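Hello again,

I reread your note about wanting to compare the complex against the isolated chains. To keep things tidy I'm splitting this into two emails, and this first one only covers the full assembly. Below are the input lines as submitted, including protein chains and any nucleic acid or small-molecule components. They are followed by the predicted structure of everything together. The single-chain runs will come separately.
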Amino acid sequence: MTPFQLVKPEELAYLLPELILVGTLIWSLLLELILRPRQSRFPVAGFTLLGLLAAAVADLRLLGEPARTLFSGMIVRDDFAIIFQLLAAFAAGLVVFASIWTREVSDQPTAGQGEYYLLILGATIGMFFLVAAQNLLMLYLSMELLSLPSYLLVAWPKRSRPATEAGIKYVVYGAGASCAMIYGISLLYGLSGSLELHDLNAYVAGLSDQTALPVATFLVALLLTLAGFLFKIAAFPLFQWAPDVYQGAPTPITAFLAVGSKAAGMGALLRFLYLGLCVRGSADLFTALGGLHWPMLIAVISALTMTAGNLIALAQTNAKRLLAYSSIAHAGYILMGIPLLSVAGLTAVIFYLAVYLVMNLGAFLSVIMLENQGLPPEIKNYRGLGARSPAIAIAFSVFLFSLTGIPPLGGFIGKFYLFAALIQGRLYWLAVVGVLNSVVSLYYYANIVRRMFLEKPLDETPVPASPMLRGLLAVLALITLALGLYWIPLYQLVEFAASTLGL
Amino acid sequence: MLTATNILSWITFTPLIGAALILLLPGRKVKAIRGVAVLATALSLLFSLVLLSRFDNAGRGITEFQFVAQRDWIQAFSIQYYMGIDGLSLPLVILTTLLSFLCIFASFGIERWVKAYMALFLLLETGMLGVFCSLDLFLFYVFWEVMLLPMYFLIGIWGGPRREYAAIKFFLYTLLGSVLMLLGILALYFASEPHTFNLPQLILTSSQWSGNLIWVPYFWKIVFVLFFIGFAIKVPIFPFHTWLPDAHVEAPTAVSVILAGVLLKMGTYGILRVNYPLFPEAAHWFAYPFLITLGVINIVYGSLCAMAQTDLKKLVAYSSIGHMGFCLIGMAAMTSQGFHGAVLQMWNHGLITGQLFLLVGVVYDRAHHRDLDGFGGLAAAMPIYAGMVSLAFMASLGLPGLAGFVSEALCFLGAWPVFPASTALSVSGVVLGAAYFLWAFQRVFLGPLNPKYEKISEINGRELFTLAPLALLTVLIGVYPMPILNWMTATLNHLQEILGVAGRGM
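Full-complex prediction:
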């Protein structure tokens, strides 16, 4: 056995994206200290953006290289991790960009402006490690690295009662889920004798020969560990925190949690399930090891998540809260692809996440732009917006219909691949639940559209918007439309990444 | 410019180009916007007439198409841009371009957000034409859904008092049907070898699939029903019809015309285009007893409901449910006359109901209500209008010599040898139709003139212009329907061959 050496210097080259982000964080901190008297938010935000961009470029340069395990199996640099890191960088970059022009953020005392961007950066580093972790301890630590800045970000507007309340709720709920998860991980360690997913895999493979007791213990450990993931992606039964937190947090942070956090949590969940509990067979299919029926459990969770999210969303009157329930429903849709144990299902999941990122960020950006102009996110305030601000109203509608899954928009293609994978994987009941849910969701999405276009405005004054956000909104809307007409480049990239996962 | 391979794309996308141009115009240039809309629909109509002149009546259709355009769109999933027409789709393409052109004129009364209205209307036309021309099921689905958005806004923004309710009801119903259809499309894709969305190829190879079929022997029936529900909601077939009266009544006149004239036909078209040739055995299983029963219910129930209405537009809406029932019994019988009758009925219903809704719009624009009992003696004040209405009513109730009679008679002739009892029941629909139309005519036009409407103005030139072509065609087809029947004969014969009933009812 070779002597234990945690960090081999040559491995650092493959950690470049993460190192760039950490470096950006440190330098931003210094920058913030130096510039604080000048009271300008642009340098730190701009520097953060540059760092995220550089990390994404570094990631792209590593794309397509053979998978490489780093630091004695702690993390792995494969295309699966890279695609999720790109998604995280994209989400964080857009949120930072939008935050610069968000009045909810910029109206806060300037003293705290720098730390806002630092915290986003910290959470992004957590996401980067989370989706690359191949060791349960590493996975847990990265999850915490993502969670702690998120708690702070939610409560960041210090004088805002809703934000503080949301922050407390988030931290209490998160601590509970985190405890359950670490307890589950400790049980898994006790059973398998290792924290590495590969060793867990070997242990699970031998589980079917065991007596009932270890299997039962293992199932308990599995459920406890899953709790951490389900909390992060806001899935049934651990989604109750989401509406309050989403509603109370500053809107850019809500968007960050709804897309970034969810995507990273989903990536980690995929790796945990597919690397730890599956073996890859022929024809791009996986087999669940040890005769465990967790795919059925995930399928049921998926059905319950989307149904609960959609049904509760029907009753919402606040746009942020509505989007919170909608994002719960979307966690359900995305989970549909996981029990299929096929590369097609995996591809559909990641593809959907990518499309969801664009359209959901767009929807939140619309809310931000309206909030900037003094329209709080109560849906009744959007009355007649089609006449007052056609550009925002049209873009918002594009995102909402895309979330519903109406062609020719990206959301439809995402759902199409999910349903196709379900039909191919012969999980018909879930496909039926899924399509019926998307019909239900039309009602509440269209309700916002109805307010904007079908009702006459109370006053006709136009709603202005900053040109930067206007431009960003247009770009996101165009991407949403383009993904509905020609999506092959993204699909191929995602399929390529998905096929690298698994033993 | 127009070649055999690109003419369908020109017909389909000319309105979309028009919509794009309109979006570039400033909203206050109403005349220019209307001009572009007229031009785009006129060009599309012109191209479709060129198509008609080049159409070969002898083409077999169903699996062999004319004017085919085929390009790869998404290779990885073998999705193609695949368009083509046959004797089944040709009449509907021409009906669509004609009605859309006329409806642009009927929309000149719209004053709020003309730019958005016209752009959405043109987008709707592209969607409709795409549905009738596409032969790739994925493409078909995309066009099918693309229509929903403009329709939602057209009803929801420019509709009547309950427009919001009607618009979302229409949207939810149709989306429910189409997502089930999407599952059906995916089931077919994964059952086929090699996997494809190509409709003719699916029809030709479906008998040879074996390994991928699931739930044999129920597979075909299940997929048939998934598609059928999607199409039935559009027709609409009882019990999926409740969106229709709301949508028709609340929609602005031109949109009602398109809804009744074209959108309803998509349901029956889809059943003939997809369900019948792709699942011949399931089609026989379904035709009797289900489809024929639903057809009879549609006719009798729709007509009875129409009779109970006091709102003229609602009366026309319910009469549509009844008239689509005639299509259904013709289709269920699977005889030559039945099929000819059904397809001709689609076309005729488009012409006649189009006129009815336009005529309702004319009186509504003047009186601002449509209450049957609120008029009285209008014939004295508006003789030309009364004449046009009586022509449309007579055509709709099936007076010999007018278009409606020919197709209804063909449907009955076709259904009689197969389902004598059901046919006998459905003939009552004609009697009921005569009853409610004549009764409505009497209440609105006959008797002493209601003094409130002494000064009501006669139908104007623009309104006559939108009605005249439809009225003329109604008379022409009523007298000599052969040209139109000839377009479809070869295709329908081929459909009968595929269904294994070649020559039934010849």
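For quick reference: The longest strand of chain A covers residues 68-70.

B.
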